[in-house]
Amino acid sequence: MKKILVTGGLGFIGSHTVVELQDEGYEVVIIDNLSNSKIEVLENIAEITEKKPAFFQLDLRVKENVKAFFEKNQIDGIIHFAAFKAVGESVQKPLEYYENNIGSLVYILQEMIDRKIDNFIFSSSCTVYGQADELPITENAPIKPAESPYGNTKQIGEEIIKDTCKANGLNAISLRYFNPIGAHDTAKIGELPLGVPQNLIPYVVQTAAGIREQLSVFGDDYDTPDGTAIRDYIHVVDLAKAHIAALQRLIKKENKTNFEFYNVGTGKGSSVLEIVDAFEKTTQHRLNYKIAARREGDITAAYADTRLANTELKWKAEKTIEQALQSAWEWQLKQ
Ligand code: WQD
């Protein structure tokens, strides 16, 4: 049985990917430092899959921790989620983001090279494209200068991996996520934003649940049909399954080059007001919102051209926006 290390495996996307890995018959070991997740997620995963993954609470910024882990654990592949991911916070604390997001990546890659471990999947983001010149966004779209240290750590991370694959023959895939939303159908795992949610969907469900007074729609003067910004919202379970598809491609050595990257979205763009409307219709819950000023750093529109992932990864998003919003709502009702 192949043993897969999932760093950040108790996080939002990580936990959903662990469930899919176990369902596919992989043995999973999780490293998480619990800086942006809760230990209860481990039990919740076990309730869903009836298999409790091995878990190590480790800070991957400490090189000795990483070395010691690999000395004791025989790993066949790695999915690396562990990173700080708040765009706004990264502007305030750039060095924390570079140390954590880049340092941990370098230490893990070093161990992979030293121990001849192959099959590395990197959690990246469509944020590397900034505001793309053409929509939908393909993998050939130019990488724009990062608008935040967070986005820069994803760009730098991909460069580090590319150089390492070239120098050492490592096989790696970077998945550039669009906007992950929703929760597992069991409502046992989902998004756990700490403090005031920065992302749209957690704020929507907390407003509907009465935890937040009112949703602010950040701008209605964008160059879009209804004036609000457009994103490609992908169900987190579809996103998790893309990691399985990428892992299988690497393990079967079907990749054509050492380093490949894929846009992972639905291929469909939805505006903020379309999301609000879909949420109200799907859950029959009215949403208290107002139009507010634009949020600094936001782009007008982003949605994926998914043809490369569809053909090369043999993967396609299957769940609808309505299913994603309903699952997010059912998850919120359990908090
Ligand atoms: C979506 C849309 C907001 C909150 C970011 C990161 C990206 C990834 C996902 C980590 C935008 C609007 C939001 C609110 C609103 N993160 N909005 N009111 O900014 O597209 O992407 O999170 O990997 O890398 O950049 O996602 O959910 O914050 O915003 O109107 O209270 O919703 O303006 O148009 P974003 P988001």
Automatic annotation (TrEMBL):
Pathway info: Carbohydrate metabolism; galactose metabolism
Pfam families: Epimerase
Single annotated GO MF: UDP-glucose 4-epimerase activity
The EC number(s) this enzyme carries: 5.1.3.2
Family of this protein: Belongs to the NAD(P)-dependent epimerase/dehydratase family.
Assembly description: Homodimer.
Protein known as: UDP-glucose 4-epimerase
Organism (species): Tenacibaculum skagerrakense
